[in-house]
Amino acid sequence: MQITKASEAVGAIVEGVDLTSLTDDEFVEIREAFFDSGALFFRNQQLTPEDHIAFAERWNDIDINRFFTPVEGYPQIAKVLKEPDQEVNIGGGWHTDHSYDEIPAMGSILYALEIPPSGGDTLFAGMHAAYEALDDEMKVRLDGLQARHGNAHIFGKDSAYQKKFGGRFGNTESAVQEAIHPVVLSHPETGAKGLYVNPGFTLEIVDMDPAESTALLDELYAHIQQPQFHFRLQWQEGMLAMWDNRSTWHYALNDYQGHRRYLNRITIAGVPLDQASS
Ligand code: SIN
Predict the structure, then answer these.
(1) Which residue, judged by its Cα, is nearest atom 8 of ligand 1?
(2) For this structure, is 85 an active site residue?
(3) φ, ψ for residue 205 (rounded to 5)?
(4) Pick from 222, 248, 271, 270: nearest CA to 12
(5) What are phi and psi of 86, to 5 degrees?
(6) Three-class DSSP category at 133
(7) Taking the CA of residue 122 as centre, how many other CA atoms within 13 Å lie in the half-sphere pointing to its CB?
(8) How many Å apart are CA 136 and CA 161, to the nearest integer?
């Protein structure tokens, strides 16, 4: 098995491994690389839904997504699907999954079944690298801050997104989750500090004037959106990508109108998050 960095800031490519027959030693190596790099990419995997579930369960329990359409017969697997005649995709903006939950999902495991002839790449951003590149003044300013996250504006039945999305999300009445998390997170596995706010689900910095909160979040988002913190994944059918929601953002590009793109996603349960101590 070879593991090589995908970019300086985020991700690693794992080669020479079959995820249906991983040894315990290989799994230990993969786990370490995952928490170190924030995302892993495996090409040429031949996974049945059962294989996908079995791999996910090696990490932790499965966190069943409330809103995505499940694969028939496999409630643990959510479809990330855009048909040729649909215009809005899932995840078409920078975000991290489930930050609106009290105990956010650890990560997601996405397996590619049908990829358009061109386009449909996914961008990843590394939150540890982005945090480390902040100047000292900003690091001091962020110390001890907390942010409120929510999902009603995305998955709620009256949200603009759900309307644009053609009502394809289910359970919209249960999009009521809100949670408060540290702005700078000490990673639960490695202790490394990273930014934990995202444009998809972060609503505001707690106990801050709204205009100041918006300005601070916009400044952090502009910082993270610099390309030196990114990796662009070009999908192939049979590729599996997994990312750590506590240390990355991702963004599914929507530039393949008229083509089908279909991947299956399993979300893995996480652990309570702690404030990073300076
Ligand atoms: C997602 O946000 O989970 C979807 C990512 C993708 O389709 O590449």
Answers:
(1) 252
(2) no
(3) -85, 130
(4) 248
(5) -95, 150
(6) coil
(7) 29
(8) 37
For the question of residue 209 being annotated catalytic, the response is: no
- 141 belongs to the catalytic site: no
Q: Which domain does 51 fall in, by range?
A: 2-275
Of 77, 235, 256, 265, the residue with max ligand 1 atoms within 8 A of its CB, to mutate for a pocket test, comes to: 265
Please say if 149 is a catalytic residue: no
Tens digits of per-residue pLDDT, 19-45?
Answer: 999 999 999 999 999 999 999 999 999
Backbone angles phi, psi at 217, to 5 degrees: -60, -40
pLDDT value of position 68:
76
251 Cα to the center of ligand 1, angstroms:
7
**Domain CATH for 56:** 3.60.130.10
Check 63, 97, 101, 244 and give the catalytic one. Answer: 97
Tell me the pTM. 0.94
Q: Of the candidates 154, 209, 208, which has an alpha carbon nearest to the alpha carbon of residue 178?
A: 154
User: What does the angle CA 109 – CA 78 – CA 262 come to, to the nearest 5 degrees?
Assistant: 80
Residue of 239 and 167 predicted with greater confidence: 239
Number of structural domains in the chain: 1
Residue identifier of the C-alpha nearest atom 4 of ligand 1: 91
Are 39 and 229 spatial neighbours (Cβ–Cβ below 8 Å)? no
Q: How far apart are CA 65 and CA 162, in angstroms?
A: 16
- Alpha-carbon distance of 72 to 265, in angstroms, equals 13
- For the chain, give percent helix, strand, coil, nearest 5: 25, 30, 45
Distance 95 CA to ligand 1 centre (A): 10
